[in-house]
Amino acid sequence: MGATGANRGQPAIMDAKTRWGRFRRSEAASGLLLISPTALYALLMLAVPLAAILLYSVLTDGYLTVEWTPTLANYAEAWGDPLYRQVMLRSLFVSATVTLVTVLLAYPVAYYVSFHVSPSRKSLWLFLITIPFWTSYLIRVFLWKVILGFNGVVNSSLMTLGIIDEPLTFILYNVNAVVITLAHAYAPFAILPIFVALEKIDRSLLEASQDLGESRLLTFWRVTLPLSMPGVVAAVLIVFIPTIGDYVTPQLVGGPEGRMISNAIQLQYLRLDNYPLGSALAVSAMAIVTAVSLVFLFLNRRFLRVRQQ
Amino acid sequence: MRSKGTGFRAYTIAYLIFLYAPIVLLPIFAFNNSTIIAFPLAGFTTNWFRELATIPALHHAVWNSLVIAVSTSILSTCLGVFAARASTRYDFPGKGPIIGFIMLPLVLPEIIVAVSLLVVLLGIGIELSAWTVILGHVLICTPFSIAILNSAFQSLDKSLEEAAIDLGETRWSTFRLITFPLIMPGIISSLLISFTISLDEFIIAFFLTGTQPTLPVYIWSQLRFPTKLPSIMALGTILVALSITLLIIAEYFRRRGIARSGGQDAGGFL
Amino acid sequence: MKPIIQIRDVHKYYGDYHALRGINVDIGEGEFFSLLGPSGCGKTTLLRTIAGFEDLSQGTIHIDGRLMEGVPPNKRPTNMVFQSYAIFPHLTVAENVGFGLRRDPRTPAQKAAAVEEALEMVGLKGYGGRAAHALSGGQRQRVALARALILKPRVLLLDEPLSALDKKLREQMQSELRRLQRQVGITFILVTHDQEEALIMSDRIAVMFEGQIAQLAPPQELYRRPVTRQVAEFIGVMNFLPASVATVNGARIDVEVAGLGTVELAAEQCPGGARSGKGSVGFRPETLTILFEGETPRGRVAEGTVEEVTYYGDMTYYGVVPDGVDVPLTISMRNLVGRRVLERGERTRVAWDPAALVLFC
C-alpha cells in the first residue's frame, strides 16, 4: 500500500486517506454496515431482554415490586419445589415424546415426497403439507379439543359405531392430548428439514450401494439414513426446542395434569406478578433446552461432519 | 420402484388426512345450526357468520391485528433485506455469530421472547400497546424474512450487478434497476409470510398487548365461553380461507421468481 | 506499439493468500491479448483489477494514460463480457444491449438505432424484442458482446467467454470474436484456461502460474520457445529427455542428451537463459518423424521400439522408447495415403532435428 503513494511522491496523508477509503469500500466494512440495522435490532430486542431476565432471576421479589437484593432463592425454589420440578420434568418428557413421535411419523412422508414423487410435483406436495401450519394455531389447537373431547368427534363416532359404550376420557385433559396436538402442530417443521437432507443425497450413491450387493433395505440403513441424519438432527431440534416452551396447547387440552413450564412462567408473570421467580423458571427452561440440544448435537457429531465435506 | 411407492403413498395420504382433520371440521361446525360443538350435526345455518358482524370488540381486534401485521411485515422485510444482502454478498468479521444471533428467535420458545421483552418494556416504563406487540413480532418474523430473502439473493447471479456497474450504473441505480426487480418475488413472499405469522401469533401478543387485544388474544378470551364457540368457528373458517389465499399468492410469486431467474424449483418455504 | 494499459508491480492479497505477485505488463492499443493459465493462477483476478472490481493491494494500473486508483468500474473506459454472460433476465434483448445508454444524451430513436446496429454487428438483427431468458448460450454470448461494445470502450475484457459453449459453437465463436476485434479495432483482453483457444485468437499471450506471469510472447514464440518446462507442459504436448550442458562456446551450447548423444544448440534454443548444469531438453511431437520403409532421413536418426499406438483418424500418436532411454517419446504422424500404422512392439527409426530442441536448465 505504501508504495503507491511513495512512487508518485505524494504526502503520507494522501496515503492514509486512500487507506481509509479502501477500508470503507472493503468487504468487511460494507458487510458490517449492511447488517448493522438488523443486528442492532436483535441486540436491543433480544440480547438486552435476555440479559434482563437473567438479572431479574437473581433479584428478590417484594410483592408488586422488585428489590435489588441479589439472591439465589428463586433458583432454589424453581429447582427445589417439587411442584416446579414435576412441571419441568413433564415438559421435558412431553417435548421428548412429541419430538420422537413427530420425527418418526414425518420421516416416511419426507422419504415419499423426495424419492417417489416426480420432481415437478414435489413442491405441490410440500405446499399441501405446509398449508395447515399457516392456519390459526389457536383454532387448530382448540379443534383438537373438539375432536378429543367428552362429546367430541372421536367419542361420538366411536359410540355411534357401537365400538364403545362410554366416552373415552383418557384422550383429553392430560399428557396424551398434549402430545397428539403438538405432534400435529409441528409436523411440517419435522418434514421439511428431513426432505431437504434427502433431496441432497446423490441418487447414484444408492445405485452404487445396490450395485455393490446391498439389498434395498440395507441400502437405506447404510447409506440413505446416515446421509439424511443432518436433516433428522435439524428436525429434532426444531421440534424439541419450541414445544418445550409451548403455552397454548397444555393450557387448552392439557388439563391440570398436562401443565407445562410455560404455563408456570405465565402464572408467575401475569397472575402472581412474581417476576424474579418467573425469570428464574424461564432461565432454567432455556438452560435445560440448551443443555439437551448440545448433548444431542454432540451425540450426532459424526453425522453432521459429513455435511461439511 | 413403483410398487414400493404405493405403501409410502398410502401412508403419506393418511398423514395428510391427520394434518387436515381439524381444518376440515372448522367449516362443518361453522355452518352447523347448534350451539354445541359436537356430532351429530343439527342443520345448516349462516347465523354464526352474521353474528360476527355485530361484535365491536372483534372489529377492534381485527383492526389492531391488521395494523400490527402490516407494520410487522414491512419492518421485518426491510431488516431481512439488509441481513440477507449482507450474509449472501459479504464476508465480515463475526458474520457467523451475528447472523446466528439474529436467527435465534427461530428456535427460541416464544414465551421466552415474550417475557423477556415484557420485563424490559415495563422496566423502562413503556406502556404496552400495539407498538410493543410490533416490536416483538418484528423480532420473530425477521428470521423468516431472512430465510426467504437469502434464497432470493442467492439465486441472483453476482455478475448481473457487476455487469450493471460495468455498464456505467452506480451502486444505488444498480440496486434499483437490477437487484430490486429480480428479488421482488422474494420481497413479496417475505411480506406475505411475515404478515401471516404476525396475524396468527398469540403468546407475544398475549403478553405485550395491554388494553388493545389482537385477534388471537380476542379469540383466546372467547374460548372460555361455550356460547361464543360457534361464531369463533365461523371466524376461524374465514381466517383459514384467508391464509390459504395468501399462501397461494405467496407460492405463486415464489415460483415466478424461480422461473424468472431460470433456476430449478427446490421446494417450499423455510 | 502504443500501450493502452500499463500494469506496474501489481500485488493482490486476499487475507494471507497472495493472489497476484508482482505483475508488470503493457497491453497495446488494438491488441488481442490473452491471459492464459490453470484455474487459480490469478488470471481472472488480474482481469477484474483492470475492470475495477478488485482493489489492488500494491502497484498501479494506468488505462489510456490515466491512473485507475480509486476509479470505480462504472467510470473506467473498459467493459466486460462475464463468464456467465450476466444477461439481465427481466429485460428484453434490446433493453439489455441498450442498458449502458441510460445516461447517454442521445434521443430514444438514436439509441434504438445504435442498439439495432450493435445487434446486427453480432449477428442478432431482429432479436431485440425477445425475452432475454429465452436465449440459447451462444445468443447470450452475442448479446453480452453487443451490450459491451455499444459503449465503445477502449478495452473489452472477456472472462472465459467461451467456456460454457459446446465444442462446435466454441470454434465458431472463436473466429467470430477475432473478426469482431479486427472490425472494431479496440483492445480485447481474453481470460482463458484453454491453450488452444489462446493460440488461435491472440496477438500475444501472458501465461500465468501462481499469481505471476511465466511468459509473455506471441503464440508462435510461446509454442516453439517456452521459457520453462511448466510453460511447455501447459502449451500443447512436449517430450522431455534428461540433458546436461557440456560446454558453452559463445553463442553455441553443446548438450549431452540421454539416448540421443551430443547435440549442438544455438543460444535462442535456450529461451530460459540459464545454460549450465543438469536439466532437460524438450521437443514437440510433430518435430519427430517416424521413418517408414524406403524414406530417407533429414537430420539425425535414433532407433527405438513402439510402445503405444493411438489412432485418431487423421493422425496417429505413437509412444516410442528410443534405445538407451526408459521414457517413451510422443510422436504425431499424419496418416497419409499409403502409409501404414505401426503396431506395438515394432522396431522403428525416428528422425529428429536438433534445431527443434529447447533446453531447460
Descriptors:
heterotrimer; B: 270 residues; mainly alpha; MetI-like fold; 11 helices; disordered C terminus; C: 361 residues; alpha+beta; Rossmann fold; OB fold (Dihydrolipoamide Acetyltransferase, E2P); 3 domains; six-stranded mixed sheet; five-stranded antiparallel sheet; 8 helices; 20 strands; 22% helix; globular
Layout of strands and helices, then pairs:
The complex is a heterotrimer of chains A (309), B (270) and C (361).
Chain A: H1 2-7, H2 12-25, H3 27-56, E1 60-61, E2 66-67, H4 73-80, H5 82-116, H6 119-130, H7 137-148, H8 153-160, H9 175-185, H10 187-200, H11 203-211, H12 216-244, H13 248-254, H14 261-271, H15 275-299, H16 301-308
Antiparallel strand pairs in A: 1-2
Helix pairs in contact in A: 3-15, 4-15, 5-9, 5-10, 5-12, 7-9, 7-13, 9-13, 10-12, 11-12, 12-15, 12-16, 14-15
Chain B: H1 2-30, H2 47-52, H3 56-89, H4 95-103, H5 110-123, H6 130-154, H7 158-166, H8 171-200, H9 203-208, H10 215-222, H11 229-260
Chain C: E1 3-14, E2 17-28, E3 32-36, H1 43-51, E4 58-63, E5 66-67, E6 78-81, H2 93-97, H3 108-121, H4 137-149, E7 155-159, H5 167-184, E8 187-192, H6 195-201, E9 204-209, E10 212-217, H7 219-224, H8 229-234, E11 239-249, E12 252-257, E13 261-266, E14 278-283, E15 289-291, E16 300-311, E17 315-322, E18 329-334, E19 347-352, E20 358-360
Helix pairs in contact in C: 3-4
Description:
The complex is a heterotrimer of chains A (309), B (270) and C (361). With 309 residues, chain A is an all-alpha fold. Chain A is built from 16 helices and 2 strands. Mean pLDDT of chain A is 81; it is low at 1-14. Chain B is mainly alpha-helical and 270 residues long. Helices cover 75% and strands 0% of the residues of chain B. The longest helix of chain B is centred in the N-terminal third of the chain and has 34 residues, at 56-89. Mean pLDDT of chain B is 85; it is low at 262-270. By secondary structure, chain C is α+β, with helices and mostly antiparallel strands. Chain C folds into 3 domains: 3-224, P-loop containing nucleotide triphosphate hydrolases (Rossmann fold, 3-Layer(aba) Sandwich), CATH 3.40.50.300; 238-278; 283-354, OB fold (Dihydrolipoamide Acetyltransferase, E2P), CATH 2.40.50. In chain C, strand 16 (300-311) and strand 17 form a beta hairpin. In chain C, helix 3 (108-121) packs across helix 4 (137-149). The chains are: A mainly alpha (309), B mainly alpha (270), C alpha+beta (361).
